Amino acid sequence: MSTVMNDTAFLAKGYTISTDKSLLDFDVIYNYLSTESYWAKGMPADKLKTAIENSICFGIYQHNKLAGFARVVTDKATFAYLCDVFILDAHRRQGLSKWLVQTIIGHPELQGLRRWALATADAHGLYRQFGFTELTNPERWMGIYQPYTI
Questions:
Q1: pTM summary value
Q2: pLDDT tens profile 39-71
Q3: How many Å apart are CA 26 and CA 52, to the nearest integer?
Q4: Cα separation of 66 and 24, whole Å?
Q5: For the chain, where are the E strands, in sequence order?
Q6: Beta bridge pairs of residue 116
Q7: How many Å from the N-terminal Cα to the C-terminal Cα in the chain?
């Protein structure tokens, strides 16, 4: 497991993590995912609203203002897919992404799962710290990819 700054250090800087969806700033999340991310560029707003409604969402806030986000698609028994993870530029390089992933992995509703999955183009080092590895037997995995039209 990764060593991250403890909760007290983040709390002292005004940061909190919450799964309360009423605190999420949809406009900030939508702007980042649909215009800045490489994985969800062009995502329609209605698709994101549905995705948020049907996921466990984690917001990082500094003084009640969104600083980062992630969501988990899961059955809460056997499988979880970690996705849409980001920290806004102004809040990067403080260890917040590590704190976020640590919080997600430790969430009470996500314990005892048989498998976690995620996809990343550039954050392998972050996720390896928490036990993620390349897929075992990738030849067994299949998918359908239908990109958003921009």
A1: 0.91
A2: 999 999 999 999 999 999 999 999 999 999 999
A3: 9
A4: 7
A5: 15-18, 56-62, 65-74, 79-87, 115-118
A6: 80
A7: 39
Give me the amino acid identity at 17: I
* Domain range 7-124, its CATH number among 3.40.630.30, 1.10.3430.10, 3.40.30.10, 3.40.50.300: 3.40.630.30
What are the contacts of 73-76 at 24+ separation with CB within 8 A? Answer: 74/109, 74/110, 74/113, 76/109, 76/110
Structure-token pair, residue 97: 């992404």
Q: What is the pLDDT of residues 126-147, one digit of tens each?
A: 999 999 999 989 999 999 988 8
Length of the chain: 150
Alpha carbons 14 and 60: distance in angstroms, whole number: 10
Report the SS3 class of residue 88.
coil
Sign of the Cα torsion 127, 131, 134, 137 reads negative
Closest C-alpha to 105, from 95, 116, 120: 116
